[in-house]
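Reproducibility note. Readers wishing to regenerate the assembly model reported in the main text can use the exact inputs given here. Chain order matters: entities are listed in the order in which they were concatenated for prediction.
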Amino acid sequence: EAQVTQNPRYLITVTGKKLTVTCSQNMNHEYMSWYRQDPGLGLRQIYYSMNVEVTDKGDVPEGYKVSRKEKRNFPLILESPSPNQTSLYFCASRPRLAGVYEQYFGPGTRLTVT
Amino acid sequence: AQKVTQAQTEISVVEKEDVTLDCVYETRDTTYYLFWYKQPPSGELVFLIRRNSFDEQNEISGRYSWNFQKSTSSFNFTITASQVVDSAVYFCALSEAETGAQKLVFGQGTRLTINP
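Running the prediction on these inputs yields the following structure tokens for the assembly.
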């Protein structure tokens, strides 16, 4: 089944404790992104990647890191989480195909930082 | 700068009523793409439709229809004969060709509740 997977789905952590949220897609998509969803703000892009070893900042990159060492994986790293990073996080992917611009989303990771 | 506005924060209707969700966008790009996504209570994001800026044809898919009007920068979504299963948060989103369509800019979302 074609899908984007994220782990963990739920995470409660404390301020300053490094964490990684994994994202993996099995559709051989070139493009991958991370978004965070906050009430009243919709979803905002954190980082994106156009291919292996090619990443760039989105609209709200502060406090986050990413890497793209393999095409299928795009982990989101929070080196020192803070309470304002409590949010619902989505990973998304899409192919580099002309005419296909919709992104396909993972199930989401709900992160709480205390 | 690109921006999407969904002015309706919450809508509540009785089952079988028709309901329209409004979406207004801003962009300087001449080529762009508009989307609607559904987020049911389970939380996942489900892609519903994409519209290209050069295609202003309205679209109907079962009980769903979309009205794209470049003159008013709007891309409204209508559900006909609503059902309880339509209850969800709906997001309108915009992507610009100039940025390689790398980023989806989302509206704030409209929470739709269909009451039995």
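We highlight two features of this model. Chain A has no helices and eleven strands. Chain A has a mean pLDDT of 94.
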